[in-house]
Recover the amino acids of this structure.
């Protein structure tokens, strides 16, 4: 059966336009010469079926006689252009070629769709998709890459305890590396996990800097470097990395979140508010973007609007406790102590079964005038390997905690092996 040629068709992560003979991946056109495209087109039109040399020559070369070697070289070009997906083209020596898209493909695409929701429920659903894909095709490294990335995002967005996800993260990453090799992307994930799960700032930064020349246009890598700089109190360097990321991929959701945080940490509250408003224009369903918008409203002196936005953010993502903790902190700061206390009590009940980031609970307790309990929570954040504790050096919400003599010792302990230069920048 022949496929239509009017619209691009999906081929895994690729978009193929049979009419214009063009192939795209993530919006970037692949370098594929016309003859190679014609051979790929024959395979696409015969999915799962063996295309022997006679049929391939007849359809891709219009019957012009070429050697089997020429066909082999051309198929090799296609496989190289498809990258890790080149293994979808299977060779049967002396017979021909077959294009077989793994059963795991739909699950992997569905998993990344859920990841892009940036919610705990989305990440949990993504994890299920990737795990099922791995069960269906244990040779597909992308399934294990998806599993490891999802665990890292759950920890990075403070939705699961970093120390609890680190083991399964490493296991999945090692499976992906065994199948594909330790790619720069996997190395980047491993390096960032050192930061998120171990608070190993120095080694994480060194590894990311080593990878950066290999992936100079990776917005995600640049964003990660900016976050590491924020953890070390190096605001100007974080801004510089963010500008590079913005020049590379201006519409990245992670960049949108980072832009608000950097401006809040820099006490540029009007600029933070404007940036957060733009983020919600782009991602109106993002509970993370809305929570940062609420924070910007609060520091801009618009408490009532901040309360309204925190309520919306909490309603959008009731399974993200740190957002509720920030909501309660805002309420406490503006005298609504009873409501803030009720949220605190609920978070303590939730903690029996779910992860609640202790740093954000500490901020709430301090806003309620319970500083000793706040420092107990900061110690808990340290014990739980919460990397959000590193941001206390710049976070405006932590101004009160930083004024306490106990803060310096905790901060030094949190930075651990980080360089004296970085510590001095805080």
């Amino acid at each position: 059966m022949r496929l239509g040629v009017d619209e691009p068709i999906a081929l895994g992560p690729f978009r193929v336009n049979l009419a214009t003979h063009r192939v795209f991946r993530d919006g970037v056109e692949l370098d594929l010469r016309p003859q190679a495209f014609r051979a790929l087109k024959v395979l696409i039109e015969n999915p799962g079926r063996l295309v022997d040399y006679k049929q391939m020559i007849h359809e891709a070369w219009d019957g012009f006689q070429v050697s089997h070697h020429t066909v082999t070289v051309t198929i090799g070009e296609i496989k190289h252009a498809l990258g890790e997906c080149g293994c979808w083209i299977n060779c049967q020596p002396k017979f021909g070629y077959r294009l077989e898209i793994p059963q795991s493909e739909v699950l992997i695409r569905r998993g990344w769709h859920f990841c892009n929701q940036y919610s705990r429920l989305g990440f949990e659903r993504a994890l299920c998709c990737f795990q099922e894909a791995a069960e269906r095709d244990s040779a597909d490294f992308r399934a294990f890459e998806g599993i490891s990335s999802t665990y890292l995002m759950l920890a990075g967005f403070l939705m699961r305890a970093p120390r609890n996800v680190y083991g399964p993260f490493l296991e999945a990453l090692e499976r992906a590396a065994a199948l594909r090799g330790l790619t720069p992307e996997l190395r980047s994930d491993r390096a960032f996990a050192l930061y998120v799960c171990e608070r190993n700032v120095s080694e994480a930064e060194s590894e990311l800097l080593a990878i950066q020349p290999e992936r100079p246009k990776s917005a995600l890598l640049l964003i990660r470097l900016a976050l590491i700089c924020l953890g070390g109190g190096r605001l100007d360097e974080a801004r510089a990395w963010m500008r590079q990321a913005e020049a590379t991929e201006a519409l990245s959701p992670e960049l949108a979140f980072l832009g608000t945080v950097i401006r809040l940490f820099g006490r540029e509250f009007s600029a933070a508010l404007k940036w957060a408003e733009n983020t919600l224009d782009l991602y109106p369903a993002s509970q993370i973007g809305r929570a940062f918008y609420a924070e910007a409203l609060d520091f801009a002196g618009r408490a009532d609007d901040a309360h309204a936005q925190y309520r919306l953010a909490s309603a959008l993502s009731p399974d993200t406790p740190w957002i509720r903790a920030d909501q309660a902190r805002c309420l406490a700061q503006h005298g609504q102590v009873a409501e803030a206390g009720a949220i605190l009590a609920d978070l303590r009940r939730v903690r029996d079964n779910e992860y609640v980031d202790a740093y954000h609970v500490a901020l709430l307790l301090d806003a309620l005038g319970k500083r000793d309990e706040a420092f107990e929570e900061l110690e808990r954040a340290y014990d739980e390997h919460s990397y959000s504790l590193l941001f206390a050096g710049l976070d405006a919400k932590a101004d009160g905690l930083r004024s306490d003599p106990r803060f310096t010792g905790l901060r030094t302990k949190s930075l651990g092996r980080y360089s004296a230069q970085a510590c001095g920048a805080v």
Summary: The first helix runs from residue 34 to 44. DSSP finds 22 helices and seven strands in the chain. The mean pLDDT is 91.
